[in-house]
Amino acid sequence: MFQKKTFFLITCLFFSYSILSQVQSNQAIIELEKKIDSLNVADKNLEKTKKWFVLQEWDSVLINSSKAKMALKNRELLPYLYYMRGFSFMKKKMFDEAKKNYMNINKTFPFYANVVRNLGGMALEKNEFKKAIGYFESLNEFPKTRPLNFKQSTVIHDIGISHFHLKNFKKAENYLNKSIELQKKENDTIFLIGSFMDLANVYYEQWKDDLAVPYFEKAYKLSLLTNDHEIKRKAALNMSVVEENRKDLTKALAYRKEHENWKDSINNQQKIWNVAQFEKKLAVNEKEKEIRILETENRLKSSQREKLIISLISAVLLLILGSYLYLQKSKSHKIITEQKQELGLLNKTKDKLFSIVSHDLRSSVNLMAKSNAKLIKNINKKNYEEVENIANKNASVATSTYNLLENLLHWSTLQTQQLYFQIEPIELHNVIQQIEFNYKPLFENKNLTFINNVEQPSFVNADLDSLKIILRNILDNAIKFTGEKGKIECSSFVFEDKNKIYLKISDNGIGMNETTVDKLISNKTLLNKKINQKEIGTGLGIELCKSLITKNNATFHIESKLNHGTTIIIGLQKTAL
After folding, report:
1. With pLDDT > 90 as the criterion, what percentage of the chain qualifies?
2. pLDDT, tens digit, 9 for 90 and up, residues 205-252
3. How do beta strands 459-462 and 424-427 pair?
4. pLDDT: is 44 or 571 the higher one?
5. Beta strands at 555-560 and 459-462: parallel, antiparallel or unpaired
6. Residue 481 lies in a domain
7. Is residue 485 part of a domain?
8. E strand or H helix at 500, and its extent?
9. Taking 60 as the threshold, does the pLDDT of residue 111 lie above it?
10. What mean pLDDT do residues 327-335 have?
11. 93-97: long-range contacts, CB 8 A cutoff, minimum separation 24
12. Centroid of chain to Cα 106
């Protein structure tokens, strides 16, 4: 009787995980392929890994996944590589390596349930039955809304098998009965045969032959309805052993003969498949020979054609070369002329720039020197009220000079294309608020009222640093040309083009006439000297603003009237939320 039990235990192991694992593995491969395709991943190594994974070429999967893992740019795709590697190691029965890869996958992975399922299956095959139960039972903790691409009945079945090996026969019987009920509803004939055999073994192990035999008979009858010769062979073999134990040698011999017939059928199928593979290999070799002969003939013909073509091409090339040299000479002459004109224009721009800057710097330094002389005299006379006035004027001159130098620096970096640009979503109201905080001392110095009426939230696409430069230059001008107790207001509005937010900066200062406005808006001149300007400054700030506004894909408009203030409107690209 001991031999009987040992035999059925081997049969049980065959059905317990190998068949069920194979079915759920194929389903997992299909689902994983769909998921990776849906991600639209443009990675050659990952695509190769997926291709070999679908073809179930496990060695090729491991080779290509190693390459993909080192070169993968999107690290979010790493779990898919670890899953395919772990799966491949598992199929090659390298369970420790499979587990190492699976442990690198976190619970947010879409196929994490499969990871746990496979870890449990490997533990079962390694006879680590308590660990297997722990993995299988943890699958109950997964949300019911999360889809599983394996059947719950297979997990319940494997928990029963684990308890069987731990001699927990009552639990094994309960779990296997549950899996049988589910498999009946699912019409899974193959799974049901395995579960019947496993439950029969549970009873056989407890010497309950009267309960075990009916399940072996059920398994045998169901096997006749399948096309799987291996399952039929196993079922017939089981029935042969059952009848031997019943002492009915006639039936036992009949089942044994049926078992041998199915075994021979399987062997014949294998031989036929091997012969077919051999014939296919021969046919491929013959076809390759034909291809090589055709390739040799084509090379000879190609060689003859190439000689003729080379002769014709040589003649054409000589003609083209002569024409090319002539055109190249004409082109070089034209390029030299254009470069000469461009160099002349750059020299004029440079001279004009240095002329204006040196004039303003000299004026500011001269003004500072005279003012300091007055400051010293008043200090000696202890005329502190006048000292304060002179100090305030000196501070204003220093600020203007600093702004001039800062604009010059920004202008030079912009002209040499060294200014770093990063277009990103920016909340306009907060930027104005920051600049208002920085300019508060200047507003208080002239008793100016500043109002920030920009709507919240107002998100625009712009480079933050360049936007601050633009706003500071506009506010500098507004402060310069607005008298004591004046008002500066920032507001925003959306016009017909709803893709833009318009920022309006208004002051009630001295304003400008139409001629000055036209010159400031015009792109024909590099710099423009403002009229009615009592403080130090040039048109460099406005020119810098226009260049930066263009780089931010924005628009620029000036509205002004002499003695009635100035309004500057900047149209910025609205952020799509």
Report:
1. 1
2. 888 878 888 888 887 887 787 777 777 778 778 888 887 777 778 877
3. antiparallel
4. 571
5. unpaired
6. yes
7. yes
8. strand 500-507
9. yes
10. 83
11. 93/125, 95/122, 95/125, 95/126
12. 18
Q: What is the mean pLDDT of residues 102-123?
A: 86
What tens digit of pLDDT does each residue of 294-322 get? 878 788 888 888 888 888 888 888 888 88
Q: Is the dihedral of CA 543, 546, 551, 552 positive or negative?
A: positive
Tens of pLDDT, residue by residue over 251-276, are: 778 778 877 777 766 565 555 555 55
First CA to last CA distance, the chain: 76
CATH of the domain at 530: 3.30.565.10
Instruction: Give the whole-angstrom CA distance, residue 37 versus residue 45.
Output: 14
**Is 104 inside a domain boundary?**
no
Sign of the CA dihedral with 170 first, then 172, 181, and 148 last: positive
Q: CA-to-CA distance for 429 and 528, rounded, in angstroms?
A: 31
pLDDT greater than 80 at residue 512: yes
Q: Which helix (H) or strand (E) holds 193?
A: helix 189-205
Burial (CB < 10 A; 0-12, 13-18, 19+), residue 386, is middle
8-state DSSP, 459: E
Spell out the long-range contacts of 57-65 with Cβ–Cβ below 8 A and sequence spacing 24 or more. Answer: 58/88, 58/89, 58/91, 58/92, 59/88, 59/92, 61/85, 61/87, 61/88, 62/88, 62/89
In a domain, 243, yes or no: no
Q: What are phi and psi of 552, to 5 degrees?
A: -90, 10
How many folded domains does the chain comprise?
Answer: 1
The range of the structural domain enclosing residue 560 comes to 418-574
Tell me what the pLDDT averaged over the chain comes to. Answer: 76
- Provide mean pLDDT across the span 469-494: 86
Name the pTM for this structure: 0.42
CB-CB contact of 524 with 501 (8 Å) = no
Q: In the Cβ-directed half-sphere of 135, how many Cα atoms lie within 13 Å?
A: 24
Angle (CA) 98-99-102 rounded to 5° is 90
Q: Tell me the residue type at 518.
A: D
Residue from 281, 215, 258, 296 nearest 11 by CA: 215
